[in-house]
């Protein structure tokens, strides 16, 4: 009565999930137009209309199981939906799925199939139920050995999430580092990871500032050493002053004093880098009334 390509075509047209497309084609005896109408009548073909909207709210989620950990971000259009129990349940389910499967890219994750439904289908279905654009934006998985330690921290109900991996140390130290990462937002783990073009650009700015201040040209390079060290202490996790330290100890030294070293860090803040659309609330309400 209908083929797999018909299901694919209907999904592309409506944004509905695979199972819903199959039901629609069955109900309409394979007629594509009637299947589209069936989906609309049942409130399912909403994902396509929502796809052009901006989803810059949402939540981060972190999960650790044995020697694996995952951190991810799922976006919604409004903070109201981000707090919706159904949305939260979907995020938890998605986190479990990603943790349980060997995936590296977002494309791999979206095509994962669980109980006959892909992650992409799950997103389409939650869009249809909630009525807002939902976007699985990013994730990262970390794997550790038995001698290594994960640290996690979630701030403001998931608005900011951080995950760190330490070699050695212990759970308490790892959590402290994750808390620091969430609070201080370091750009890099260590000075050696700062790209050379970024370093040279910063040095050139500092040189110009020093010369404009009247510093002798032959002294500038020596002064730069101290200024660059200060720069690294602002942007590099290992060199930042640990937020809980009373003696201005760096994060790197704090971890080392507890028998460890920092291997990796991940920090997600909901909506960072997404250009948010400025809405006129009164105008939006009037548009909904007119619609």
Explained architecture:
With about 290 residues, the protein is α+β, with helices and mostly antiparallel strands. Among the domains are: about 5-45, Helicase, Ruva Protein, domain 3 (Orthogonal Bundle); about 55-145, 2-Layer Sandwich (Tetrahydropterin Synthase, Chain A), CATH 3.30.479.20. About 45% of the residues lie in helices and about 20% in strands. The chain is built from 13 helices and 8 strands. It has helices at about 5-15, 20-25, 30-40, 45-50, 80, 85-100, 105-110, 120-130, 170-185, 195-210, 220-235, 250-255, 280-290; strands at about 55-65, 70-75, 115, 115-120, 135-145, 150-155, 160-170, 260-270. The strands form 3 sheets. A 3-stranded antiparallel β-sheet has the order 1-2-5. Helix 1 (about 5-15) packs across helix 3 and helix 6 (about 85-100) runs antiparallel to helix 8. The radius of gyration is 25 Å and the shape is elongated. The chain starts with a helix and ends with a helix. The model has no long low-confidence stretch (mean pLDDT about 90).
